Amino acid sequence: MRNYTLFAFLFFTLSNFAQIKGTITDEKGNPLPFVSVFEENTYTGTTSNEQGQYQLNVKEAGKNKITFQYLGFKTQKIAVSPGSKVIVLDVKMVEESFALNEVVIDPKNNPANAIIRSAIANKKENSEKTSRFTADFYSKGMFKVKDLPKKILGQKVDLGEDMSSNLDSTGTGILYLSETISKVSYEKPNNLKEKIIASKISGNNRGYSYNTAALSTYDFYDNTLDFDIKLISPIADNAFNYYKYQLEGTFFDANNHEINKIKVIPKRDKEPVFEGYIYIVDDSFAIYAIDLDIKGYRMKNELTEIMTLKQSFNYNSENKIWSKNAQTLYFKAGVFGIKFSGQFNYVYSNYEFPASFAKKTFGNEIVAFEANSNKKDDAFWNEIRPIPLTIEESNDYNKKDSLQTIRKSQKYTDSIDAKNNKFKIWDILKGYEYKNTFKKYSFEYDGLLNITSLSFNTVQGFNFNSGFSFKNWNEEKGKSTSVSTTFNYGFSDERFRVVGEFTHRFNTINYASVAVSGGTKVAQFNSAEPISKFVNSVSSLFFKDNYMKLYNLEFAQINYNQYVANGINLNGKIAYEQRKPLLNTTDYSFFKRDDIYSSNNPLAPNDFETPAFNQHHLLKANITARINFGNKYISRPDGRYNIKNDKYPTLFLSYEKAFAASSKNYEFERIATAVQYDLSLGNKGLLGTSFKAGKFFNAENISFIDYKHFNGNQTHIGTSDRYLNVFNLMPYYTNSTNDSYFEAHLEYNDTGFMMNKIPLLNLLKSTLNLGFHSLAVPDRKPYSEFTVGLDNLGFGKFKLFRVDYVHSYQGGIQQNGVVFGLKILNVLD
């Protein structure tokens, strides 16, 4: 009953509005996009679309004048006669004539500098005026693609039916179109609560848009703005270290405020800076408008060519507040000859500025969706949407929404599946997938020539995987189930191994899931697997270095995982393990064939007969808690999405127990903890930290497998983006312990703060990395490493490489080396 009452109230409210609509053009008749349109001395406003069309709902026509504000054109105020529910008002705007007194611009007395200094001095006061508000929020987002090929590097490009349905034969069209309407409560610096009233995605009536106010807050009164990295505001406290300014003219708005148009010029091209124009009100030195560009390389995002951010503010003479009423974010990107573009339009209206909020206004839930927010019909959207749709957008909605009904039908999905499910004789070798889209299940066979799984080690020789998997899913309930089996065959040891796994996710609210697995496989002594199969294969076959040490594991285990409270995830596991030692079975390599591989015994690399341990079995139980302090989340009808609060560290707590072993001496207990934290240094970079500690009990004679092993690296190849979990030159097993341990990793990335200022080196567009790594275990001298290197290296748009010089020290033994970071290996392995 409440929903019907709410709907009736909303309908009654809207029906009492007057709608003013029309087209805004320049003097030549060209449409003007994104013109700010608002009712004078109110917070009722909108903007025009790309075709210059606008529509504005006002409570009573004729009560206030309608203001039309657009950068480069004179602001107009037009009175509208009352009486009609729909008023057509077309507006022709006249270009602004800027005035600039003739002055001799002395670098020491630049008039623009004086205005910017006043803006900086007054920004706290101006920011405070809008530091606490509620508002209605509208967002429209669109992604477009141009020249999308059918294949890239020989691989078929598959965007799915929903995304690709509106592309023409050249691969051009709208990939994504979405709108949201919400009610926002905000308090600086970071308290936010947003209630999504309506959400719409073209071609997806079950979709919930990600266009939220939480992801679109760009405040130039702050010193930095977050665009992957921290960009410097043109009125930051230290702005003069990064920008030069030029006063291009002044003009008066409709309220007789003098507005200064100031050109923002970066001092150094590679810095994290904006360029373009900022408009400052002369008396209050508040922001009147923003029209700034961001080049992709300046925010270390080479795929983005340029991003343009525009903001406009309107003035309320009753409370004397300049508040943001419209924002547009546009970007262009490209790779492999494909061009992408995106545009997000935001409208803020119906502001209220309370003196304070109730204590429980804000919590960890930052975004929530009303029930049936994605079920609003066209009549609702046509009535409440502040920015009219363009012809292209209307066509996209009409086409995709009509196609959706067809494509969700069993007849259609069965016909598409029947085409794709045809079995071909060569599928025996290359693999095969059978899918029933309507009933939501699929079956997959990996094939006998699964080349991507091929690898080499000295225990198995060349080996590869194949297997089967079955999956079904229920998107509405967030459930999914999979059953898989993986077959592995080693050509040198002539051994066939099989692992099976069953996993089930119960929901997407607390993400409760269970996994049951078992079988036989080869496993690294270090369960963290510090050596990837790809790197080990190259190291062995080309350089005759077999750093990967393996044993045979027969196991059965069950794992359960769930969020038990906000930000607290628990993972429990119990496993039966039968461990058997393995020996090398091959001496094959491409080069250095006269050299000899080390043995498979990590404790005795020159002993080819003594196994690293005796065969045994045991049960192991482990429980681990991950705690994200201050965790925020978005509540959607189809799930809950956790957002880590970067202000706080992540804490890990773990307890492990081995029992019921074949011999009592293999039983032990271990407690462990870890803390990870990224300290933002603003525009000066990011300091990443990771600290780990643990302690064994009753572990004097346990198997070497159960020791705490540390992630060393002897290959001189790095495979991760950051080195906060690895020692770059430390041998893999020399410091393993069954006692207490403490390790620390610190890595500073300047995000270009220093590198951007060094001539010639700044042409690399790289970042400087400084690192320190330390390990302490009983009965050994501490191990320490110092690193210095360059990240974000590469060619053109592809910054996939990193190079570090490393100096290590332990007990008087010093080593020096270079580690080459190849981030692409994360994808290949």
UniProtKB/TrEMBL annotation:
GO MF annotations in UniProt: carboxypeptidase activity
Domain of life of the native organism: Bacteria
Pfam families: CarbopepD_reg_2, DUF5686
SUPFAM superfamilies attached to this UniProt entry: Carboxypeptidase regulatory domain-like
Record key words, sorted: Carboxypeptidase, Hydrolase, Protease, Signal
Signal peptide: 1-18
Transmembrane spans: none
Name of the protein this chain belongs to: Carboxypeptidase-like protein
Organism: Flavobacterium circumlabens
Lineage, opening ranks: Bacteria, Pseudomonadati, Bacteroidota, Flavobacteriia, Flavobacteriales
